[in-house]
Amino acid sequence: MPRLGLGVWRAVDGQETEDAVSAALKAGYRHIDTASMYDNERGVGRAIRASGIPREQIFVTTKVWNNEQGYDNTLKAFKGSLERLDMSYADLYLVHWPVVGKYKETYRAIEELYDQGLVRSIGVSNFNIHHLEDLMGSCRIKPMVNQVEMHPLHTQKKLFAFCRKEGIQLESWRPLMQGRLDLPLLGDLAAKYGKTPAQIVLRWHLQLGAVTIPKSVKESRILENSDLYDFELEPEDVVAIDGLNRNHRFGADPDHIDF
Predict the structure, then answer these.
(1) Among this protein's residues, is 38 annotated catalytic?
(2) Which of 1, 57, 56, 9 has its CA nearest to residue 33?
(3) Are 150 and 210 in contact (CB under 8 A)?
(4) 56: which residues sit within 8 A by CB, 6+ positions away?
(5) C-alpha separations of 144 from 120, 141, 151 in Å
(6) Where does substrate bind (predicted)?
């Protein structure tokens, strides 16, 4: 699973999604994250095919949405995702949110897809520790990934430690805080390393051991977000960024979802 990927949430299906994915692939990205709810799986699939890059070299994630959950519904939803992507398998399939009363049956269906070889890896998204503990009490295959909101203002330290202990890879969505990067510390570190605040934050994610999927449809930003491998944050700077935590979410709280 490549540590850096492109997220396509809110990218409009068609030319916008195709251009973003094409730019990412040309820049060296080999990990694309979509979902049935994003309504752009078709564009993702078209861009991957047009790239000429062998399918097995690109890691593709998609997710089952909340109103598609349940055992039979999930099997049907996954079939629809594969048809829209025009692919024979997905590299990672996730339960998008922990819908109470449904996520266990949803995950059971995903285990079945894994057994059939239709999914190379399986996991969950937006699961807190108690959701993971509940799921692991009954599942056959431990989730391989937990994709959650994580960034300097919401560092998820307890969840990250739990996932590390259980061998679950933490993956970060909204890593750049929707562009809210005007924090003095990030500006100071950007000047110190000759990088942008966004690059500082993404490098922080990588050094912590997280997978991260910044979203952009602008080629210049996609290129900027991938320029992370010619510098390393000093340990004290990683700690300083950790200190920005305010347990502040920009997205929904998984314990209080109504969608």
Answers:
(1) yes
(2) 9
(3) yes
(4) none
(5) 10, 8, 21
(6) 96
In the block, which residue shows the tokens 């109470």? Answer: 100
User: Within 13 Å and on the Cβ side, how many CA atoms surround 172?
Assistant: 31
Report strand pairing: 59-64 vs 31-33.
Answer: parallel
Looking at the chain, the number of H-run helices and the number of E-run strands are: 10, 8
Indicate which residue of 38, 93, 103, 107 is catalytic.
38
Outline where DSSP puts E strands in the chain.
6-7, 31-33, 59-64, 92-95, 122-125, 145-149, 169-173, 211-212
Distances (CA, A) of 127 to 31, 99, 109, 247, 252: 22, 10, 17, 16, 12
Max distance between CA atoms of the chain, in angstroms, equals 53
Written as one letter, the residue type at 119 is: V
Looking at residue 155, its pLDDT comes to 98
Q: What is the pTM of this model?
A: 0.97
Q: How many residues appear in the chain? A: 259
Note the pLDDT of residue 174. 97
Say if residue 96 carries a ligand binding annotation.
Answer: yes
* Angle, vertex CA 49, rays to CA 47 and CA 52, nearest 5: 105
pLDDT tens by residue, 82-122: 999 999 999 999 999 999 999 999 999 999 999 999 999 99
